[in-house]
Model the fold of this input.
Amino acid sequence: MTETREEFDDRIKRARAAHEKQQEGHKTHAAQIQTFGSDAMKAPAIVGLGGIVALLGFYSANFDRLSRNTAAMQSFGDMLFWLFASLLMTVAAPGFAYLSQIAYTQALNDERFDFDEPFVHETTKSKRYRRLGDVFRWAAVVLVILSIIGLAIAGVLFFRVVA
Done:
């Protein structure tokens, strides 16, 4: 079946609209990458600094009491482990989120545009990048959850030390 000039013009118009919409998605992802990059540098530094200051203050204020109680020293050591493990995961999570956004953007860049429905097609390469983005995204989610669990464990240990 051949297409009329009117049908052809309509198809081209819809294709261009789909291509423009896809390009807007690219711009959105680029802005997200910049935001994640900024957050990846700021948030862990603030969290790390706060944790270090709090630990040093607590340790110096309670050294005499802690040093006489072996169980308290053990709990304090465990608390330090969980706090620093949590901080490490907190530092890593934004990096994985950033990598996920790069992978998603690359997936968008590797899609194929044409003038036949559906106008934008996933390619093998774009599917791979999308899956890689999913892996990085879920790694970031798992790291955040583990970090929260680590902070909770450190909090319970802190109550053992002060009790």
In short: The mean pLDDT is 81. The chain has four helices and two strands.
